[in-house]
Write a structure and sequence with these properties.
With about 1200 residues, the protein is α+β, with helices and mostly antiparallel strands. The chain is about 45% helix and about 15% strand. Helix 18 packs antiparallel against helix 19, helix 22 packs parallel to helix 24 and helix 29 runs antiparallel to helix 35.
């Protein structure tokens, strides 16, 4: 091979020669996922924090306040809260990174046996180097990417589990190069000096290309010779491997995304708004500075003799310049730093609510939900796309034999539908697996009475497979299956009296109804994804030759003898039923062969097997010849156990207009059947498109054909209307794409086509994808759709996807806690996702939006009074309020009420949030806080400031006390305006609060009381005597608030501020109520009237379309290993036994987002209340937000 042309940067590794390998400066085996260390933490963290525009803004204000000529406020009013915010954030970031360091240290300090100077020595993983030879023992993790050199198993075989890489828990086989397979002794390995030349580090999990040079010969290396970091050695006593890639160069780490700093969309919007507000602040400062220049030139110059300018001011322009900066400081409270402190406190409270939620606690695993970050809670209420792993996330990866059809007779019903107890097989069969569950005793009776078809059915299952068996003690059998499907089928045969005991390359030994029988294994016609079937040809002790075949019904039923037509029709009906239930189906058949037929075919098979070119095609043609004219036996139905509540969760999330994509490393058939099981795919869908092209051009053509077909079908369903890709009418589509096709679809020139086609589908399933491809799909949607994404997974292969999404959720399942450690939120069951999003996410978004709207309102109402006052004080940067009121306004008087609203507020209870998923849509559309809502808030604040300034100014300018003394003084005006402001904002938050708790009452009315208490204390004689230079408003509060005209002024200002708000809200509620208003109304009605009796039954029914339920998680090549004898050995360990429990409830009917758009509103709602829940949840024609009067007969719109 010409390596320079094949790989731009080839890698050369020489065994047992660290000096040679170190000159290439390969990466060590130490990994680091943390962001900081002790030296870099402070500068890097501060740099990240000052990327927040607000932090930079407050630092700038702090610098201004340190200049005495322009500052009228003390510097500590800014530096204390700024330091507090920076410190809290730094502590949180340091804590998160500490756990990353802890995880890294745990991995780096694992022990590994390394061959050093001829002996095995224990070394930490971090000290392993490229070129070292490592010994692995059973159940150990692979420390680095290794070239398998030898194994304790025959022929250099070893078995690995790759769950950390691709999520699959079934075992895979790896084999060493034949020339090194005998180097099992450390002494022999110590003298091994072979050199490997291979490709550079990359993220391709399924590909490796290289050459081993040793003793003047070269040997090709493939992925079958490699053990990748993250794999676990299974059922193999020990093996030796040569380190090729270490640490960050390993394929596992190459597929791990970088740790990213995540911000919510509200954070990004707030950064923009802060810039706008700063621009607004500069504009106000410029206006007031110009006013100061004009006033000083036209008016102030007349007072120079007894009111001169303070040095260094010597002209009106310099006075205006200083006035500008003074007003920037005074008016900076439009965005006080307390906003950011409050936001962090609210987020922390929301995180604790998630942690404390008992309804998200799993008693089986004793695991509670955990918010591992506090910065993303409100984004949980805005998710539009969910990217989910399959194995361990949607499913439990447990296969159970549930139903079967034998000679047209169906068997197998669940306990809940029959009332029968689980069958006890032990009296009938002492070799039965005690963990096997089956409830239909008719099948057992059929076997007992000697029904030929039933016995032949289970005989086929006991013979036609590639399972290995180990008998630890008499009758204690352990099966090692290459796929969980096979394990479930062989276990079923075992329990019904046909027990697979052992095999050799040429025989299969079974126990049939208590009698030991040994069959001669003549041939295995191996499985592959094209054939979708496997067969064995065996000779019975009586000399009868028979072919047994199992495979997909779509291919096997075509190869039956014509006399099977009636049985085929009946069995097809059963297969339809099983597929409709989401079960994984296989059809079973057999064919008797004469001695002449076998001899003739065997000769053809031998020729094809020895062919040097097109061997696979030749073998497939030979297999096709013999697998004809078979006799149908029946069909099996296996359930890949879904996690509890998965179908219901997916249905509810779909009703909330959340699109769910499944990204899995599993094969297509498995993923599609799980899609049907969890109701992502339904037979009611218009069409399911499968993209499987192997070239760029073929993938492009398939995507275009799918898109054209979608448009064509949508026009047909909508009566010929013109529709674009974004609105395909009522037609529903799904897209299934394989990993090799996805690799082409993700290329720059095709990604837009893929996105437009995929996003027009209701469901998307990506099969055989690598961890990096998962992350690339997430990034693609983030780039083109500008939507909030959530990724959920349970294994290390999901980490890059979890890190790439806006929100990462880890499930603490059976694949370790790697996904949890990389996630933002974690829990133990997929079903908790609907509560996380529809309850906690929606509430967090609602609370944060209400908090921000009110916060900006109250601060504009507070600050803009200074602006109006500037026109009446000669633009001198004089403040309206006492400086202590300015300091305490955001810290004491108004902080706790808005915090209580931001932490505890609800519009509807949690049950209603789950009952009406459409309530989630405002967050997706960003309706509750956006630029428009922001301008409405500041407009209301500016309006309130106008009222709060000019009403007291107009009234007090001519008012007098009862003694005739005028009230038109600065201190009386300041106290009146401040009191009116506190009362107005307190009444406003009382109106904004939708859910009152004890905390809300205490904080709202307590803050109001604290204002009067503190104000009277600060204006008291006692403090004035102690600090005469600090408290200038002595006695002003008492004298002002004793005047009736002052209270009338406060009442009038409050009414003018609040009454228009009340009027607007009543009109809006009456004329254009939102869905949440409707739900609240129904809740009030339910409290006064009896509860609704009916909740509605199941909706819809499955169509009668024909769909194969075939799914067989099997790989090609095992048959050849068995017949060659290479995988025969004396001892092996077991796979886990499989238990099952059926979960069959779901919601079939899903609504589209267009259901609530106004054009669907042209009809009357005659009687709403008795069926409101049904209408709100399921119909697509009711204009919920157009209801004028709930419960009355009105015409919408």
């Amino acid at each position: 091979w010409d390596f320079c042309s094949k790989w731009p940067e080839e890698r050369r590794v020489r065994a047992n020669d660290r000096e040679y390998n170190e000159k290439f400066q390969y990466a060590s085996n130490c990994i680091m996922t943390s962001k900081y260390n002790i030296i870099t933490f402070l500068p890097v963290n501060l740099f990240e924090q000052f990327q927040e525009v607000a932090n930079t803004y407050f630092l700038f204000l702090l610098i201004l306040q340190l200049i005495p000529q322009i500052s009228s406020l003390s510097w500590f009013t800014t530096i204390v809260p700024l330091a507090l915010v920076l410190s809290i954030t730094a502590v949180k970031d340091a804590t998160d990174d500490y756990f990353r360091h802890k995880s890294d240290n745990q991995v780096n300090n694992r022990q590994s046996q390394v061959l050093i100077r001829g002996s095995l020595q224990n070394e930490k993983w971090m000290n392993v180097r490229v070129g070292d030879i490592i010994k692995l023992e059973n159940k150990q993790f692979v420390a680095a990417d290794l070239l398998l050199l030898s194994s304790t198993e025959p022929h250099g075989l070893c078995y690995i589990e790759t769950a950390e890489l691709d999520g699959e828990t079934n075992m895979k086989v790896r084999q060493s190069v034949s020339v090194t397979s005998e180097l099992g002794d450390p002494n022999n390995l110590a003298s091994f000096d072979g050199e490997v030349v291979c490709e550079p580090p990359n993220n391709k999990l399924d590909r490796f290309c290289g050459t081993l040079y040793w003793r003047d010969k070269k040997y090709p290396l493939t992925n079958q010779n490699m053990l990748l970091r993250g794999c676990v050695l299974r059922n193999t006593e020990a093996c030796y491997g040569l380190v090729i890639f270490a640490g960050p160069d390993t394929k596992l780490m190459q597929n791990s995304g970088r740790t990213k700093f995540k911000r919510t969309s509200i954070d990004r919007l707030m950064n923009t708004l802060v810039l706008w507000i700063f621009g607004f602040l500069v504009c106000m400062g410029v206006i007031l500075a110009v006013g100061n220049a004009v006033w000083e030139r036209e008016v102030g110059s007349r007072f120079q003799s007894y009111l001169p300018w303070d040095p260094p001011v010597d002209n009106f322009l310099f006075s205006a310049f200083l006035s500008f900066w003074s007003y920037v400081i005074i008016l900076n409270t439009v965005v006080p730093i307390s906003l950011y402190v409050s936001v962090e406190v609210i987020r922390l409270g929301h995180s604790y609510f998630i942690n404390w939620d008992q309804k998200m606690f799993c008693s089986q695993c004793n695991t509670a939900a955990e918010a591992r970050t506090t910065t993303l809670n409100e984004e949980l209420g805005q998710v539009e796309y969910i990217f989910s792993d399959k194995t361990g996330t949607l499913t439990q990866n447990i296969m159970s034999f549930n139903k079967c059809s034998i000679n047209g007779q169906p068997y197998g019903k669940y306990n809940g539908s029959t009332g029968k107890s689980r069958i006890d097989f032990s009296p009938f069969n002492p070799l039965a697996d005690p963990d096997f569950c089956f409830y239909d005793d008719k099948l057992l009776e059929s076997v007992k009475v000697g029904d030929a078809h039933s016995q032949e059915f289970f005989r086929l299952l006991s013979l036609c497979h590639t399972v290995m068996s180990e008998e630890k003690s008499e009758g204690e059998l352990v099966y090692k299956a290459q796929s969980p499907d096979e394990g479930a089928l062989v276990t079923a045969a075992r329990n019904f009296g046909f027990v697979f005991r052992s095999r050799t390359p040429g025989t299969i030994t079974t126990t049939e109804m208590g009698r030991t029988v040994t069959y001669s294994l003549l041939a295995i016609l191996d499985f592959n994804n094209i054939r979708k079937r496997m067969s064995v040809i065996v000779r019975s002790p009586e000399g009868r030759i028979r072919l047994y075949c199992k495979g997909a019904d779509t291919v096997l039923l075509e190869r039956l003898h014509h006399c099977n037509q009636e049985l085929t029709a009946v069995t097809s009906d059963h297969l339809n039923e099983y597929a409709a239930d989401g079960l994984r189906t296989l059809a079973l058949a057999y064919r008797d062969l004469s001695e002449d037929e076998w001899e003739s075919w065997s000769e053809s098979h031998s020729v094809a097997d020895k062919a040097t070119d097109c061997r696979e095609d030749r073998l497939a043609a030979v297999y096709e010849q013999i697998e004809q004219d078979m006799m149908l036996l029946g069909a099996t139905a296996i359930e890949d156990k879904l996690q509890e509540g998965v179908p219901e969760t997916i249905a509810v999330l779909s009703l909330a207009n959340i699109k769910i994509w499944v990204l899995t490393g599993d094969k297509q058939e498995t993923a599609v059947n799980i899609g049907y099981s969890c109701k992502m795919l339904t037979d009611d869908m218009t069409e399911v498109f499968i993209i499987g092209g192997h070239t760029v051009q073929s993938v492009r053509q398939e995507l275009r054909r799918a898109r054209e077909r979608m448009i064509e079908l949508s026009r047909t369903s909508d009566g010929g209307k013109e529709e674009g890709m974004e609105g395909l009418g009522e037609a529903e589509f799904a897209l299934v794409i394989n990993g090799h096709s996805l690799a082409h679809a993700l290329e720059a020139d095709m990604e837009s086509e893929f996105v437009s086609t995929a996003c027009a589908c209701k469901a998307v399933i990506c099969c055989r994808v690598t961890p990096l491809q998962k992350a690339q799909v997430v990034e693609l949607i983030k780039k083109h759709k500008k939507a909030v994404t959530l990724a959920i997974g349970d294994g290390a292969n999901d980490i890059s996807m979890i890190k790439s999404a806006h929100i990462g959720v880890g499930i603490s399942g059976q694949e370790g806690i790697q996904a949890v450690l990389a996630s933002d939120y974690s829990f133990s069951q997929f079903r908790f996702l609907q509560r996380l999003l529809l309850v906690h996410g929606r509430w967090s978004y609602l609370r944060m939006c209400r908090f921000l709207c009110y916060f900006f309102y109250k601060n504009f109402a507070f600050t803009m009074v200074h602006f109006w006052f500037g026109f009446f004080c000669g633009f001198s940067a004089q403040t309206v309020y006492d400086q202590y009121f300015i300091t305490l306004y955001n810290i004491v008087y108004t902080s706790l009420p808005v915090l209580a609203m931001g932490i505890f507020d609800q519009d509807v209870p949690d049950q209603r949030s789950l009952e009406y998923p459409k309530l989630y849509e405002p967050g997706q559309l960003n309706l509750l806080f956006n630029k428009r809502e922001f301008f409405i808030c500041i407009a209301q604040g500016i309006y309130s400031s106008v009222v709060l300034f000019f009403v007291p100014y107009a009234i007090l300018s001519d008012a007098t006390q009862s003694t005739g003394v005028p009230l038109a003084d600065y201190q009386t005006f300041a106290v009146t305006t401040a009191t009116a402001l506190v009362i107005v904002v307190s009444v406003q938050i009382a109106l904004d609060t939708g859910f009152w708790t004890v905390f809300n009452h205490v904080f709202v009315w307590g803050s109001l009381a604290s204002y009067f208490t503190i104000m009277f204390a600060l204006n008291s004689q006692i403090l004035f005597r102690i600090f005469p230079n600090q408290f200038h408003f002595v006695g002003s509060a008492q004298s002002t608030l004793l005047q009736p005209v002052v209270w009338l002024t406060i009442a009038l200002a409050t009414a003018i501020c609040i009454v228009p708000v009340l009027a607007f809200r009543f009109l809006k509620l009456d004329l254009k109520p939102q869905l949440s208003d409707t739900v609240r109304y129904t809740q009030l009605v339910r409290q006064k009237r009896r509860k609704l009796a009916g909740r509605g039954g199941r909706l819809g029914a499955r169509g009668g379309s024909r769909r194969s339920g075939y799914a067989f998680a099997h790989q090609e090549g095992f048959g050849e290993l068995i017949t060659s004898g290479k995988n025969m050995r004396l001892s092996s360990l077991a796979l886990a036994t499989f238990a099952s429990r059926h979960s069959s409830s779901w919601i079939d009917t899903l609504r589209r987002k267009k259901a609530t758009e106004p054009h669907a509103a042209d009809r009357a709602i005659p009687s709403l209340l008795p069926s409101l829940r049904y209408l709100l949840t399921y119909t697509s024609c009711v204009p919920l937000w157009r209801f004028r009067k709930i419960g009355q007969k009105t015409s919408a719109g």
